[in-house]
Here is the input.
Amino acid sequence: MLDPNEFVITRKRKKYKFAKFANAANCFEREEWPKHAVDVLEIGAGTGLFSVELAQTHPEKTFVAVDVKGDRLQKGAYEALARGLQNIYFVRARADQLGELFAPASLAKIWVTFPDPFPRKRSAGRRLTHPTYLRTYAKLLQTGGVLQLKHDNPTFFAWSLEQLVQSRWHINELSFDLYESDLAEDYKVQTTYERRWLGEGRIIHFASATPGR
Ligand SMILES: C[S@@+](CC[C@H](N)C(=O)[O-])C[C@H]1O[C@@H](n2cnc3c(N)ncnc32)[C@H](O)[C@@H]1O
Here is the structure.
C-alpha cells in the first residue's frame, strides 16, 4: 500500500496524486480493470467531475470516466467516494485502448467532453473525434446508443461534425449555443474545463450522434 503522506514530504505533488489514485477503491489501471458492465463512458474525462454529477443524478445507471492522467481522475474519484456513489468507476487508459476495456455493443452512451483540439494538421489523428476513434465508439455502442460531444472551439467542433457525417453517423441533436437551447438539463452539467470557458464568456457547442449501421 502506498502512503500518500510520504509523497507530500518530498513535495512531489504529482506522485502524491498518483498514490491517491492507486489507493482509491473506485480507481483502476487499465490492466486491472475488472470489466464491470457500464452504461455511460466519458473519454478524456479529466477530473471526471462531470460524470460524478451524472452518476449522482442517475443512480440506476453505471458510469465510467477514462483518462490517461491519473492525477486528474483522482479528483473525481475522491469526490464520488465522499458522496458515497457506488455507480461510478475511474480507469486510467488511452482512448485507443477502449476496445480492450469494454465489450462490443455494450455502452448506451459515450461522452467526449472538451477534447484537446490538436490544431496542427499533422496531429489530427490524436483528436478524439478522428474517424479512427469514431470506429471504436461505433463498435462499443449498443444499437440506438449515442455519442455526445461538447466543445467551445468552433473550428474543432465543425471539423468533428464533418468527421461524423463523413463516417455516416446520424446527428440527432445539435446546438451551437447549448445554454441558449432547450436541450436536456443533463447536457448542461458543467465539466471542469467547461466551467472555465463559460467563465471567459465562451459559447458551448453540443452534438448527439448515432452510428450508421
Ligand atoms: C482539455 S481536457 C478536458 C477534460 C474534461 N473532459 C473536461 O471537460 O474538463 C482533455 C483531456 O483529455 C485527455 N486525453 C487526451 N488524449 C487522450 C487519449 N488519447 N486518451 C485518453 N485521454 C486523453 C487529457 O489527459 C485531458 O485530461
Remarks:
- The helical segments are 4-9, 13-23, 49-57, 70-82, 98-101, 131-140, 154-166, 192-199.
- The longest strand covers residues 141-151.
- The chain has eight helices and eight strands.
